[in-house]
Amino acid sequence: MASRATPLDSPVVAWALLAVGIVACASAWRDRQPDTTADFTILYASARHTSVKMFDPPPGHRGNMNPPLVQLMLRPLTALPLPVAATIFRVLSFASLIACVYWLARSSEERWTLADYGALLAWAPMASVISLNQLTWVLWPLLLWTWWWWRQDRWSAGSVGYGLALGLKPFLAVFLLWLLITRRWRAAIVSIGVAALSLAIGVAAYGIDVSRAWIQAVRDVTWTYAPMNASLPGIVSRVITSAPAGSSGPLAASLALVGGATIVIITLLRTRRQPIDRSWLPLMASALLASPLGWLYYLWWMLPGGRPSRLLLESPLLWIPMIVTVTSEPSAWRTATLGSVYFWGLFMLWVRRVAS
Length: 356
Prior knowledge:
This protein has about 350 residues and is mostly helical.
C-alpha cells in the first residue's frame, strides 16, 4: 500500500502543516461553543421529551432536525446534568474520530503520511465539530462500515450500515439512487428495509405524532442562509437574503431545486460504472450540494474518497477558517464569495471528481 508523493509530503511542508493544524485545533477548542449554546444542547433538550415537544426549539436555539431514533439513543444521557452529559458525548465523539481516522488511514489504497494528518487537523470541518460538539463523528462509523463492505463487493452487508445512516440522515438518499442506477437491487432493498426499520423504531418508541412533528420541523427550516451551509440552496438563500428588496423567494427555491437535481443526475451518470472507491466522494459531495442543509461538518463523510492532503490540493477553500465567512460588512457580492467559500470549495471538489 504505497503512497504517491504530493508537494505537501516534503518534510518541511508536512511538519509546517501539522503545526498549523495543531494551532487551528487549539484555537477551535479555546473558542468552542459553551454547553448552553452547542449543538449537543439541542439534542439533549429534545431527548428529554417523549411528546411532540421533542421538536420545539430550546430558547435561543434552532430546532432539532434529527429523527426520533437519535433522541432515543441519547436519552440515557438525559439522566445526567447537561455539563456531564456534554462531556461524555464529546469524549465518545473524539474516541470515534480517532478510531475512524486510524482505521481509514490503514485501509485506504494509499498510505497516509504526516501531511495527511496535518491537513486533517487544519481543515475547516475539524474546527466546526470541535466548536459545536455534534453528531458527525459519532455517526461516521456507519458510513465507513458501508464503504468498507461495498468495496469488498459485500453489498448487502454494507447496506445494513448505510440503511441505518439513511434513516438518520435522509439526504444520503443519493447513494440509494446510485444503488438503483447500478442495478444493485438486493443492496437497495436491504438499505430501504433497514432505513424503514429505524424509522419504525422511532414510531414505536414515541408514537406517530412525534414522527409527524419531526417531518414538520424539517419542513419549517428557515436557516439555510447560515455560512456553514455548503449546499447550493444555502448560497442561493444567502444571496437572496442580502440582495435588495423585491427578490423572489419562490424563484430562488426553484432554482436551487433544479440546480441540486442537475448536480445529482450528472453525478449518477458519471459514476454509474465506477467502483465505490472512485464514486464515494462525488456521490457524497453531490448529496451535500443538493441538500437544503449541507453543513460543513458533514464533509468528514467524504474522506473515504481520498487522502486529506490530496483534497487540500484539489480544493484549498475548504481549509479557510470559519471566521472569514462572517467578517466584513455584509453585501450580496461578499455573501456570494467569502460568505459562501465552503460552497465554492465543495463545488470545486465535486467538479474535479466528476470530470476525472
